[in-house]
Amino acid sequence: MSRLRANPVPPVAITVLLVLAVGAPFQLVPFHTFQLAMAMIYAVALLGLNLLVGHTGQISLGHGAFFALGAYTTAIAIQHWDTPYLATIPLAAAVTFVLGFALGIPALRLRGLYLALVTLAIAIFLVPLLKRFDGLTGGSMGLTVTKPAPPVWTGLAEDQWLYFLALATTVASFVLVAGMLRSRVGRALHAVRDNEIAAEVLGVNLAHYKTLAFAWSALLAGVAGCVYTWVIAFVSPDSFAVTLSITLLAGLVVGGLGTLWGPLLGGLFVMFVPSLAQDLNQAAPGVIFGLLIIAVMYLAPRGLAGLATQSAHWLGQRFRKGKTHAH
């Protein structure tokens, strides 16, 4: 895997992005507000997948399974145990963290295609497994929960409140991962990704950091699944088929592997491109979706985040040359 680095974003750009994000639900119709909330939920899931694939160099085709576990943990806690909504986030995070860590242990002996097949198998058998426990998961019919109501003092509509819950979760997740990548843990993960043998010689505990990457990746997917349940208010096994895992991986590659902002662009891609493909041709949305992925990867091999970085660099060079010629 080529050496990929998280591209820093100027503070001004981050501030502008946050201002636009805060103002968006007051300018958009409820359906578009819902779509943006879903894009941010997918971005959190992709942030975890990026931590594993882009920053540690491990392969996973089963990330949708952890997304589903977080969603079902939340739905079961609300439906059967009357758990407060905010309490379901640490619960879903803890469950998926433990299961991700457990998966990371046998994954230590696997690499490349073998690891991809094992993670794919998890995504495949999860759906029939969820259907077997009718009393707990609702079986094929799934579970319906009540959406969290906005506090009266906010004056927000339901769609706006759900949007801000998704936004707060997304911002917190990106801040957490950005801090992790700048720390000793981030440097160790990059060392494992770039050259495992050299990293081990330098004293990096491969087993520790690989399992840690799986655990944190699963945790973020679980948190995304939790907020998904809040926003959708319904979970069913068929919503988390193996195609979800493949779509998430495709969205990450399109957004930009190993970059901090690639998951955000990938979340927008995962949310809006399938609906765009559906609008263009209802008979073959999958074909159009696949062709769009091929086109993006041909035009931007490093993903949309890499394309944005290259474009900004090119514009900066042109601007500096223009100033030089002016003088």
Which structural class should the secondary elements be placed in?
mainly alpha
Low-confidence stretches are: 1-7
Q: Helix amount, in percent?
A: over 70%
According to DSSP, the number of beta strands is 2
Question: Tally the helices: what do you get?
Answer: 14
Residue-averaged pLDDT: 87
Q: What's the main sheet like?
A: 2 strands, antiparallel
Proportion in β-strands: under 5%
- Radius of gyration (CA) equals 20 Å
- Overall geometric form: globular
- Ends apart, CA distance between termini: 44 Å
Secondary-structure element pattern, one letter each? HHHHHHEHHHHEHHHH
Question: What is the count of structural domains?
Answer: 1
Major sheet: arrangement of strands = 1-2
In short:
The chain is an all-alpha fold. 75% of the residues lie in helices and 1% in strands. Helix 2 runs antiparallel to helix 10, helix 2 packs across helix 11 and helix 8 packs across helix 10.
Give structural attributes.
327 residues; disordered N terminus; mainly alpha; 2 strands; single chain; cell membrane; 1% strand; two-stranded antiparallel ribbon
Write the layout of secondary structure elements.
Layout lengths: L10 H13 L6 H24 L9 H19 L3 H23 L4 H21 L1 H4 L5 E2 L13 H25 L1 H11 L1 H6 L4 H27 L1 E2 L6 H14 L6 H19 L4 H15 L3 H24 L1
Antiparallel strand pairs: 1-2
